Amino acid sequence: MSQCARCAEPFTCAMADQTGQDCWCVSLPAIDADSLQILAARGLSSCLCPRCLPQLLQELKEQQEMQQQQKAQAEKTQTD
User: Fold this and answer.
1) Model pTM greater than 0.85?
2) I need a surface site. Which of 4, 20, 31, 73 has the fewest CB within 10 A?
3) Are 12 and 2 within 8 A, CB to CB?
């Protein structure tokens, strides 16, 4: 049994727990290198549970989109 690095709830990670099956997380999109670095910086470099990983990925996606919008707005302001 694994323990979620974010919420500390126990869950089954098929790879870490060596169940011989695919882990539930393989159905999710691959995590890009930048997101992995962000997770590691937050101390979340080990397995996350089925509730936390999708939530965290959505949060990261929203943060990245907001940063892109801010960057685009700043660039537009500079050219005006």
Assistant:
1) no
2) 20
3) yes
